[in-house]
Amino acid sequence: MYTKATSVEEAATASGEFRAGGTDLQERLRHHAGTSPLIDIHGIAGLDEITFYDGGADIGALCRIQDVGDSSRMQNDYPALTLPCQIIATPQIRHMGTMGGVLAQRTRCHYYRSDELDCPKKGHTDTCPSREGFHHFGVCFDFGPCVYPHPSSIACALLTYPGTEIEVTNRGRISVEALYGDGSDVARDNTLDAGQMITQIHLPEAVAGERAAYFRQMSRTWAEWPLVEVVARLVLDGETIEAANIGIGGVANIPFRLTGVENALIGKPATQANLEAAANRAIEKANPLPETAYKLPMVTAGVLQALESAVSNTSGGKLSL
Ligand SMILES: Cc1cc2nc3c(=O)[nH]c(=O)nc-3n(C[C@H](O)[C@H](O)[C@H](O)COP(=O)(O)OP(=O)(O)OC[C@H]3O[C@@H](n4cnc5c(N)ncnc54)[C@H](O)[C@@H]3O)c2cc1C
Ligand code: SF4
After folding, report:
1. Model confidence at 164: pLDDT above 90
2. Concatenated DSSP letters for 122-182?
3. 39, 70, 79, 188: which has the fewest C-beta neighbours closer than 10 Å?
4. Which residue puts its alpha carbon closest to atom 19 of ligand 1?
5. pLDDT tens digit string along 7-23?
6. Of 18, 24, 66, best ligand 1 pocket probe by most atoms within 8 Å of the beta carbon
């Protein structure tokens, strides 16, 4: 069964799984890892706009990822968000994929995506088979029973804007952290229940002159989820780092911030020695699986690279390839 919703109210009261751009959902359905019926939300009017106002900006859930990345005002005001929006996935996916879909996309774990393998997220079993099985691409910060990294690069970026709120039907405004929870529920990739549709992303007030960088390490150049990805957002007063927000992905079953690194930077001059000392704190809470310790030096190096790039980036959030 298929419902084509024409309003938020209709979507929020229909029963089924939302389909926005369909770039994640359709592939899952082919491998019997999706649910039906479907609620097609991509035609709902008014959710594909970016609105700027005094004190913040709103991004509709149906805005395309590339449109957010290409907005010159967004590049100026929220560079840590626009940088990943210009490079993740492929140009085709970024032009189809929506901001709601990129946040709510499901895990890329091959146990989950395969027709032939079991996974608790498909209801086949209670325990994660990957933990004792193949987990080469898995987490090195082991927060919970699922050991596959959360796939959303854009969630990492939004975490670097504290105060960001996600508006959800039948639930209200929640923080990005609340959207993902603590990773303890093996069956889920986010905390959205049935009928809870993301409608808007509310960004906090822009900070003039912030410096940002996005750095990803992956097994091929394009069209792949990164093994490790880092979003760095810094505010400098002269040489001194006044504010630091560092989001990390590819390493845990939820996106999170490296608060130890942030604390090591705040109030310090942005010297190479201070950046290196802070980056070295990136893995202080890591607890890799038997096959994932190889990611630890990638985390430290990735954080350092992102910090160095952010410090020297005075041209905002337009990606130069
Ligand atoms: C080759 C490839 C590489 C990729 N690399 C990356 C990468 O590096 N980083 C990254 O972040 N992503 C990556 N992606 C994933 C891509 O970003 C997602 O497929 C896309 O963002 C999903 O958006 P969509 O609108 O198509 O979602 P859909 O496929 O329509 O939906 C995805 C999921 O989100 C739910 N959903 C959609 N909209 C809403 C909403 N408004 N409220 C609540 N739930 C909703 C759906 O029910 C579904 O479960 C990659 C994809 C491909 C194919
Ligand atoms: S619980 Fe997570 S890691 Fe385990 S099989 Fe499922 S998706 Fe993969």
Report:
1. yes
2. GTS-SS-HHHHS--TT--SS--SS--SPP--HHHHHHHTSTT-EEEETTTEEEEHHHHHTT
3. 70
4. 24
5. 999 999 999 999 999 99
6. 24
